[in-house]
Amino acid sequence: MAIKKIGVLTSGGDGPGMNAAIRSVVRCSLSNGLEVSGIMRGYQGLIDEEIIRLNHRSVSNIINRGGTILKTARSKEFKTEEGQKQALATLKKHSIEVLVVIGGDGSYRGAQELSEKYNIPTIGLPGTIDNDLCGTDQTIGCNTAVNTALESIDKIRDTAHSMERIFVIEVMGNHSGYIALEVAVGAGAEDVIIPERPFDYDLLCQNILRGNKLGKISWMIIVAEGAAKAYDVSDTIKKMTGLETRFVVLGHVQRGGTPVSADRILATRLGAQAVDLLMKGESGKAVGVLQGEVNVVDLSRACKRENDHIDEYLELIKLLR
Ligand code: ATP
Hints:
This protein has helices at residues 18-31, 42-47, 81-93, 105-116, 142-163, 178-187, 201-213, 230-241, 261-279, 299-302, 310-320, and strands at residues 5-10, 35-39, 51-54, 98-103, 122-126, 166-171, 191-193, 219-224, 245-249, 285-290, 293-298. It is α/β, with parallel strands linked by helices and 321 residues long.
C-alpha cells in the first residue's frame, strides 16, 4: 500500500547541513505527493507529541543555515520501553507511517529499534560532525566543522608564531578523533591527542625541548575533548618543560555556522535517497555516499566506525613536524 505521510526528525548533537537534509526530505516528499510532519526535538518530540505540518515554504531559506529548524535533543526517555511506546502512540495518532531520522550513531540505534521492534519503516541519515558512521565516507556536518575549527586555529597560529609560544587547542570529539586529526594535518600542528590512541607526554616534551634548542619555539598541539582537557595538557607541558604554554578550547563554535557546499550537497542527495527508499518499502537502512556514489547499508551495520586514516595521519604529523 502506498504511503501517505512521512515524518522527519533531527536527533543528538546538531551539525551544519541538518537543515539542508530536512529541506531535501520535505521537498522530495511533497513532490511525490506525500504529506510531511516535522517532529520537534528528536525522539523527545515524539514522546511529547510536538508535531508540526511542513510545506514547501516551511523549508524556504534554510539550505544555508546551521543548526536545525526542528531543534534537536538527547532523550533518555526514548531509551526506555515506556518512552518508545509513547513515541509509537504519537506516530499512530498523527498517521505518520514512515520516518527519516537525521543524527549520529545513538540516533541510528533509536531508528533501528523503531524499525525492528515496532515495525515503523525508518531510514537514517548521517548527521554528526564526528564522521564516525559506517557506509559513508563523510557525515553531514563534519566538513564544515573541520573548516570552522581550522579558521580559528589559523588565527591562533599567527599569535603562536609571533609570540613564540606553545599552544594547546581543544576541539570537539568525545569518542572520535576525526576533527582533531583533520585540523592537525590541515593546520600543520606539531602533535595531536585523540581518544583512539594512547599518548606519550614524555616523548612530546622531549621533542619540544629538543626543538627549542634548535630554535623552534612555537608549537601547536591539537587535543580531542574526549582524549584530554586542554588545560591539563598545557599544565603538564609547562611543568615538564618549564616553557610558557597557553591553551584554547574552541567549544561550540565548531557546531554552528553556514554549511560548506560539500555538506549541503551531501545532505540534499541523501534526503532524496531516504524518501525514495521509504517509498519503495525499505526500512532499517542508513544512507551515505561512498566513493562518490549513494550507498545503502543496514542500520545495524552503520553504527560506529573507526577512522581509517588514523595511523597514516599520525605518521604524517610526525614526518612534517
Ligand atoms: P552525536 O554523534 O552528535 O552525539 P548521536 O545521534 O550519536 O549524535 P546520542 O545522544 O548518542 O547522539 O543519541 C541521540 C538519541 O538517540 C538519544 O538521546 C536517545 O534518545 C536515542 N538513542 C541512543 N541510543 C539508543 C538506544 N540504544 N536505543 C534507543 N534510542 C537510543
